[in-house]
Specification:
By secondary structure, this protein is an alpha/beta fold. The chain is built from seven helices and seven strands; from the N terminus they run βαβααβαβββαβαα. The protein binds flavin mononucleotide (FMN). The site of flavin mononucleotide (FMN) has 16 residues, from helix 1.
Length: 217
């Protein structure tokens, strides 16, 4: 599943996600890519209609109220690899990424609550890649690490949904013309390398496909 969130065509995070996907598909040409450009078609916000239906048993749900959510959730659950290209906007994930998260965190589909506690329902071997572009130094130990409400939030939500592997590649310092070209080349190279490592793990027969949506439905 290939997700983009930047409001800029040809943006850095779009280049990073595309570099990953291109390399992955060149190595595993049978790959089916689910394309989700959140900027081109922003997800709806959670509203009264969503809430009135999302927690009902499936037979009682108004499927129209949950159509977008069901589609995003189905795509997310069916994907073995999820690649998200996104900028940092105002210290966090872009609002459209938050809106997408709100659509896929679904009781009974992507997580369950019982006497035993909360359990993520995404297949545990799903791999999620967060390919991020931003300016300031937001990585651990860097000056703005305390203002990084992006990486922990995104990886935390994925963990909540049961994903065991969320990897980050961050292009930073994008407003420094002296280093931008080199940093971008490094980020694109790292994205390709991640794709190569991931493709090696996903060679035919090496992993079971997901039946989680079918099971949940
Ligand atoms: C609305 C907006 C908010 C931004 N907020 C931040 C921020 O909080 N921290 C930061 O380092 N960069 C911030 N930036 C800069 C972007 O993260 C940076 O330009 C990034 O490269 C955009 O990604 P893209 O090239 O994929 O569009 C912001 C940019 C925009 C347009």
């Amino acid at each position: 599943m290939h997700i983009d969130a930047s409001a800029r065509p040809g943006s850095y995070s779009r280049q990073m996600s595309q570099a990953f996907v291109d390399r992955f598909v060149s190595l595993l040409p049978d790959t089916t890519v689910i394309r989700t450009d959140l900027n081109a078609a922003p997800p709806p916000f959670v509203d009264e209609n969503f809430l009135a239906n999302a927690f009902l048993p499936e037979a009682q749900q108004d499927s129209k109220a949950l159509a977008a959510s069901n589609q995003y959730t189905r795509d997310f659950l069916s994907a073995d690899v999820v690649v998200v290209g996104m900028p940092m906007y105002n210290w966090g994930v872009p609002a459209i990424v938050k809106a997408w998260i709100d659509q896929i965190v679904r009781s009974g589909l992507t997580f369950s609550m019982s006497a035993n506690g909360i359990e993520g329902l995404a297949q545990p071997d799903k791999e999620v890649f967060s390919l991020v572009s931003r300016n300031g130094g937001f990585l651990p130990g860097e000056p703005f690490a305390n203002a990084n409400f992006q990486d922990g939030h995104f990886a935390g939500i994925m963990g909540f949904l049961g994903v065991k592997q969320t990897r980050l590649e961050a292009l930073q310092d994008i407003f420094n013309p002296a280093t931008l070209e080199q940093n971008l080349a490094t980020a694109l190279g790292n994205a390709r390398k991640l794709a190569e490592e991931t493709a090696a793990r996903h060679k035919k027969g090496s992993r079971a496909g997901s039946d989680l949506w079918n099971r949940a439905a």
